[in-house]
Amino acid sequence: MAHYAIGDLQGCYTELTQLLEKIEFNHGTDTLWLVGDIVNRGTQSLACLQFCRQHESSVQIVLGNHDLHLLAIWHGFGKLKKGDTVQDILNHTDAKKMLNWLQNQALLRQNDECVLVHAGLFPEWSVAEAAEYSHELEQVLRGKHAKHFFENMYGNTAKWSPQLKDWDRLRFIANAFTRMRVLLPENVLDFDFKSVYADIVPPNYAWFDAPHRQNTSHTVVFGHWSALGLVQKNGVIGLDTGALWGGQLTAVNLANHTIHQVQSQSHKPIKK
């Protein structure tokens, strides 16, 4: 019995099946965490979403920013962008069932040793606090106010305070879990930085390099940052290795941190 985590799929279903074959994944005994961004930009978003739903007994996901974007479009908010590849999901006869299932997924999953999130764990939050805040937003997504959240989701709320209220509070929680890469001094989210790690200019820093991080009790497994690539340092494992952009799709065995990869089938240039 093995427990794996795999980086951002973004519609790269062919690579997913190749990687699962490579690690000899068994749905009857093995378990899998996916770091979110199951859909969008790749050509097989529908297949990726159907796979996750079909195998929910062995596969668990967290929501990424592209997954939330799809849900916002479904609810009538947000706009399809030029590179979006989710129309086949929205047009599918089972769209309501699939998207209701997606909307009921978590923002954070954890076991005794690891925490799974899409973009990262905000450094001022302990693992227990992060779990509370994820639950706070998940309850909204699963409740009668979900549509109003998607109406108010888009926006760059960048500074955390426990006193934040209403949509500002929920928007920051969503931003931290699904959009965070680099922080400005005093842990303010920098939404503009999407480049490689070496391009970070002090006093800014990657979220996992933040001074006095409060969530080092667990290994944080995340994706979202394709230009960062594979990273194993400071108690984190970053798994977005740019499968969408001509890089690799990456799996890690969470018991021994062994890395497995397959090459992308995409002809898109690697994103930096």
How is the secondary structure organized here?
Elements: E1 3-6, H1 13-22, E2 31-34, H2 45-54, E3 59-61, H3 65-74, H4 87-90, H5 95-103, E4 109-110, E5 114-116, H6 127-141, H7 146-152, H8 166-178, E6 182-184, E7 188-190, E8 205-206, E9 219-222, E10 231-233, E11 236-238, E12 248-253, E13 258-263
Parallel strand pairs: 1-2, 2-3, 5-9, 9-11
Antiparallel strand pairs: 1-12, 4-5, 6-7, 6-8, 10-11, 12-13
Helix pairs in contact: 6-8
Protein name: bis(5'-nucleosyl)-tetraphosphatase (symmetrical)
EC number: 3.6.1.41
Catalytic activity: P(1),P(4)-bis(5'-adenosyl) tetraphosphate + H2O = 2 ADP + 2 H(+)
Key words describing this protein structure:
Purple Acid Phosphatase, chain A, domain 2, 13 strands, 272 residues, 29% helix, globular
CATH class: Alpha Beta
**Strand arrangement, largest sheet?**
3-2-1-12-13
Rg from Cα = 17 Å
Largest sheet: 5 strands, mixed
Distance between the termini: 36 Å
Going by CATH, what is the homologous superfamily? Metallo-dependent phosphatases
Report the count of strand segments.
13
Order of helices and strands: EHEHEHHHEEHHHEEEEEEEE
Mean pLDDT: 96
Q: Please tell me the CATH architecture by its name.
A: 4-Layer Sandwich
| Quaternary form | single chain
Which structural class fits the helix and strand makeup?
A: alpha/beta
> How is the CATH topology named?
Purple Acid Phosphatase, chain A, domain 2
Name the overall outline. globular
What level of helicity do the residues show?
A: 25-40%
Family: Belongs to the Ap4A hydrolase family.
Catalytic activity: P(1),P(4)-bis(5'-adenosyl) tetraphosphate + H2O = 2 ADP + 2 H(+)
Organism: Alysiella filiformis DSM 16848
Pfam families: Metallophos (PF00149)
